[in-house]
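User: what does the whole thing look like in 3D?
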Amino acid sequence: MQTVAKLIDTSLCIGCKACEVACQEWNDQEFTLGTFGGTYQTMPQLEHNFWNLIKFNEFETDGQMSWLMMKYQCMHCQDAGCMKACPSPGAIVRLPNGTVDFNHDNCIGCGYCITGCPFDVPRLSPETKKVYKCTLCSDRTAVGLEPACIKTCPTNCLTFGTRTDLLRKAEDRAHELQADGLQHAGVYNPAGVGGTNVIYVLKDASAPESYGLPRDPTIPWTVSLWKGPVKVLGSMVFLGGILGTFFHYIRYGPKKEEEHADED
Amino acid sequence: MTTDLSRRGFLAGGGTAAVTTFGFNLEAATAVAKELKIARTTQTHSVCPYCAVGCSVVIHTLGDKARNVKPAVVHIEGDPESPINRGTLCSKGASLKEFVNSDLRLTRPKYRAPGAADWKEISWEEAFEKMARRMKETRDAGFEEKDSQGRTVNRLANLAMIGGCTDTNEVNYLLGKFRFGLGVLGYENQARL
Amino acid sequence: MTNGWTDVANADVILVMGGNPAENHPVGFRFVMEAKRKRKAKIVCVDPRFTRTAAVSDCYVPIRSGTDIAFLGGIINYSLSKGLYQAEYVRQHTNASFLLHKDFGFDAGHFSGWDEAKKSYDKTTWQYELDGSGFAKVDPTLEHPQSVFQQMRKHYSRYTPEKVAEICGCTAEDFLKAAAIVCSASPEDKSGTILYALGWTQHSFAVQLIHTAAMVQLLMGNIGMPGGGVNAQRGHANIQGATDMGTWNNLPGYLKIPRANMQSLDDYLKANTPKPLRPNSMNYWGNTPKFMTSLLKAYYGEQATKENGFGYQWIPKAGETENYGWGYMYDNMLAGKIEGLISFGMNPVANGPNTKKMLAALSKLKWLIVAENFETETSAFWNAKKLAEKYYPASGDPSQIQTEVFLLPASCFAEKDGAFVNSSRWLQWKDAALDPPGDAKRDQEIIAQLFTRIRTLYQKEGGKGADQLLNMQWNYATPLSPSLTEVAREVNGRDLTTGKQLSGFGELKDDGTTICGNWIYSGSWTEAGNNMARRGQDDPTGLGLYPNYSWSWPANRRILYNRASADANGKPWDETRAPLRWANGRWSGDVPDYKGDAQPDKLGSFIMLPEGVAKFFTADLVEGPFPEHYEPVESPVENALHSNVSANPSAKIFHAEMDKLGTSKDFPYVGITYRLTEHFHYWTKNMQASSELQSNFFVEIPDGLAKEKSIRNGDQVRVSTARGNVEGPALVTKRFRGLKVGGKTVYQVGLPIHWGFVGHIKGPLINNLTASVYDPNSGTPEYKGFLVNLEKI
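Assistant: Here's the predicted 3D structure for the full assembly of 1250 residues, as structure tokens:
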């Protein structure tokens, strides 16, 4: 069976947020009200009931404004950190089409997957104590419908297909953009996680950070270690507390002061 | 509400459709998929009521239109047959279900008496009787058959009407007959606001 | 739109100005992105703010709000002085060759004919030189000094790149870059489109601005071309249809409401049926008698006879100079001249200028009927003091407001059938999916009940003007809730002799044997059935016209003025983009905007105009036959072209007590209002999904201004005008810059519109700030470019 993927061509994104809403609607998420964050972005980050976020970043270089908008969600990594970190068998599964899906019947709410994710995607629901993220609309894809975000996207920024086809399409599009004068246009499909089933075409692939993407994401070494020799111990409940601390440390690092980037 | 666990089930069939839609097989993916919420809906073609791009939508209602069943909208998404939107929608169109099902929808006529500090509910019958009476009083007081120069004008300037851009051509045509039937000249819509 | 959404994909150049389609028409914008992706189209975005449209444009130029005529006038000058225009198109399809009255001229801000005492123009000198037969004289060489072409060249020679930069606040380099891209559409095989919205129409010189855009497009040879046109994006689902149907100052189909001096139908037809101005002009409005008679027959049925002028006497007559537009309506209401107001789906407290005036005007009503899906600021106006005391402390206590209010639960789009007309002029039929909730009723039933009951009262009790009311036909199969399919068939019209549905307006007659509720919609529901519900996917021209999908007015034509897409011999300017082809004595392709079997050189190509050609110069508008840059009524600077005539001398300004205007001494910044992609007008503040996307009102502030005022992102600020104020958090951004205008920095402040004092989310009504200042031609309020002050609180 072929692996399916999403292609996100950031050169065609207009930040309309249709994908945000289509995701919420299809997945019957509860809508919330936000406080003003000083930006057009709907909320600062993904939430347990908000799986698809357009990130807005604005820059001025040599008097030229650029306002980058990019859809952000689970990357459905080929080598998924969340799966590696998960101690509960069957809670995080890889569907035959490559989708990384959560089966909440088996989720124990430990949150280790959150630590294992180099993209900071999964979120724990304080209500159900289970972790949630994009499912690639597995219920839709199962019956031949594209994911809700893909279907609604007005500008062809989003496409759905096999990973092989979309990788080729992404390369072609990047070359096209280069020919149009965007010399740093390129494909984002980071090797550190074995490639992703969400593939980006970036107008400037030399600076993925400017979109809010990690430059070279990798699964934390502690998670890899955990998947190896330590795994046997992992299911032993009494170790949970220790491991929790361990994972908290590698997720957040040592406590530090928050930066104030927008002081002036 | 986060994803309802009970929707997760084993789906039979569906694999064939998957092949034809994408040109590749998704059959095995059905193993852990949730039951599709639009699997048993009635589909109705409609047009988005917001801006004037004119996107077509498919309204999915539950209920098979049987006599004792009241349909409920469970989902609205873009209609792929429309050359305008080809199944896509913007953030407002993608949430039209919230419009139809909103708790804030008005469901009963309300009346605010002169000087009152609150609404009170009123029956349609009483509302229609009162409104028709007010309209007649106003028209009898303000109708001009002739102007100051003695010319026939048959106009009513003390009653005004507004609206139209949110409703269909046919309703607007009826409003036009209503308006010219009464002799109303002052009529405005949202075209410039 | 002259063209349509799907056609935008055919463009090589897309000028987006006075609109922000990426945010406000995102799905329509997909055709812009398609043109960019597939045709390598260049997008030029000219806007005071760097918007989401600007973010994907090839060229962005910031300008000061309200300086668009200067910018476009600069493009006209650039085009003419560089020879970058489609000369043959201009010669053949426009009035460039027409000779003007010898005394026509322009001097120091006024055109010839200005009467300072009356503050209006005598238009005698704005006419063509006529020959003995009453036809306009022409000079096909375009060299005659009194030709429209030479006069236009002279008029716009003042709009140099430096002058444009001085007025607009952009650099001359940025202007030249944009002008070069726009004028790259001048070759015969290039097409450019213009997309605009309320950023152009909400000015005190709105219609002149659209006129300027049309002039640019005529110079480029873009009118009638696929990928061309002047395209208003329109902001409500059926704003086009409501306007077509006359729910404003018109009868259906743009037929004018009679004036009191037109006492008979003959008087009316004589005054409203234009005469051709050239021998080859088809002058389609010459058929006005057929349109009007068929409408009267639809309205008055058997009561309409040849003897009684088909019931013409029952159509109300306006005074010769009376205006019933928005500004006048609320001024009259405030003055106590209006007792009752009926509102179907409209919210004037939110969307009318100067909210305090709206509230005060409504409180003078005896009664108010509001049919709505949700409670609105209008239905709750009597409670404004309680709901938003901060903004309306002086608003009356409910006990002092004697207005009786009826709030009627109506149905939403999903609960009724009928047709919406989109910006492409496509009439799209929709079906009802369910019944309205609770006791809510379908709108047609509410209207029918009210109409039937008031008629019953007149039948029983008599009263003034009873025959006018009782002779209006309402003989529907279910008169208390007419079926909209039955109404749609009446709108299309039928032949009373054969009983058959008309196939189009070509079959209308002026002898009372046809009925038609709106002539431009004739053809929408023929003997073949409901054409508006068609779903055909075929696209034989390959241009995205989809002739069998829905139905487009007029006559299912998809591109207006399409005859101009070919030269004098009928040869398409661009073989790859030909909506029409002339072969074997017939035009094929799109429905021709021309007589179907007429030789290419037989008729003028603009059949609706008495000239038979498109107009650079027109006497139709009140403030001049050529557009001229005037400052907004409230402006921080004087007009750099003629400081003695700074604002539009013909702008309509109201002077009720609440209609205060401010000066830049007290209000130094420029305010502009706009929509966000997250919301729709004043509706989605009731919806949870849209409310999540942008829950809070905010004020968008250039970072330079924020620095001057020590305002940080998120700080609470107050924006005030001479009328009122709003408060909210600041969104400080570099996307919005200070502009150098006449040697000083002018800052603009951005004010999104979507909040109010009722709904799921609440915030200030932005029209607390705006003024009762209107475009004199269309009656559109000046919502872009007014003076504000900004304070940190």
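In plain terms: The radius of gyration of chain B is 25 Å. Chain B touches chain A at residues 1-5, 7-8, 11, 14, 17-22, 24-37, 39, 75, 77-78, 85, 87-91, 93-95, 97-98 (CB under 8 Å).
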